Amino acid sequence: MTPEEQAFQAAMDVRPTDWTAYLVFADWLQDRDDPRADGYRALAAMRLEVLDGDAESGFGFTWYNRGHAYSSVFGREAELPGLWFMMLEGEKRGGNWYVDFDTNAKARDEAALAWSRGLTPLQQELILAKYTVVEI
After folding, report:
1. Does residue 26 fall inside a structural domain?
2. For the whole prediction, is pTM greater than 0.85?
3. Number of domains within the chain
4. Which residues form the domain of 107?
5. Is residue 62 part of a domain?
6. Is residue 136 part of a domain?
7. Is the pLDDT confidence value at 129 over 50?
8. pLDDT tens per residue across span 59-115
9. Cα–Cα–Cα angle for 110, 88, 134, nearest 5°?
10. Looking at the domain assignment, is residue 61 inside a domain?
């Protein structure tokens, strides 16, 4: 990871809901022909934030999917839409599906890569149409 990328990732760690940072990072990635660019744009468009684990739970940074309607947990959007989530390898715990990572950056990167490499343009368009957050 370059020093510039480390700085972007650190900024997103400190302010995980600063969606502008995701978009600026996506532009930076696109300028370098990095396949994660569109995935970071999708994370920002849908306001998807990695769910932080804690020492008590024993889990790290997590994406999850309940296998039904998209929803939030305590006001934090950490649930990837099912088709996108299926591009990651997860495990079932307590009736929900989870995929855990050691760091926020790794969780974001893997989701961004799954978006870019695992979904067709039509699938991406349908997911964005259904889940994009529009601010009024």
Report:
1. yes
2. no
3. 1
4. 3-131
5. yes
6. no
7. yes
8. 556 675 554 333 333 334 556 777 787 787 767 677 667 777 888 888 889 889 989
9. 70
10. yes
